[in-house]
Amino acid sequence: MALILLICLYTQFTATPEPLPVWFIVFVICWNLFFLNFSPILARYILPKREVYFDRQNQTVSFSWSVNNAEKNDHGHSTFPFEDIEAFYCKANHSQVHGVTHAMYIAHKDYENHHGAFSEIRVKDNPQNPNYCKYTWERIVRFMDLTKPLVDSPEIEPFRHLDPVTHEFDKQNNRPEKYWRLMSYKQMKQIEEELDDDIYRFNFDGAITNPKRWANKEITKPWEKWPIDESLNQPDDTPYWKRLMKTLAMQIIAGV
Fold it and tell me: Which residues contact 81 (CB under 8 A, 6 or more apart)?
């Protein structure tokens, strides 16, 4: 949109106006559609995958690329015990309008002998506030804790029954099987904003040094804290073609 606007200003509001370069406008629109829709697909299937994954059951961390002096798991990936991995964050200059941000990294504690066991872990928008890096690592540590059930979140809900500890917890507490899946998107967004606000202001350092004063109690029964609001759970009667056109228009005009 910015490129098209600049071209219009340059061609129409000069001493000698020129015809609009229609070919360039069409090129920009086509590039937007390609970049936003097809390039992620190409990257997924063409570029080599670089993934780090945490195995709760086996208490391991695996890297999908080659790492020095590493054992291989059943998938042929470099694997280490979770206790051998540490995390840290630091300031990073990313190409974002809000300037300096914080990035989170994980690495093997003995990186000198396990060169390659290092990766950046994406956090929410690589924010200026380092709390999101701390929160991301806290979620990983919590996920790997076999003494507790899985965190009750939408992306994990369909798989809770596969974890014995979680399955037993849900059974004892009569957890609704499809709690998150029956909730409206609007209510989910409200809950997400509430949690984001808590994370942004949370005193992580204080919670470590003085947990009795600063640490928050974990929300283990979200269905009691946030009952499903049926008033927000109304079906969207907008025709599909209208929603599709709105999405395409937003992509072309604003790139979102």
Answer: 59, 60, 61
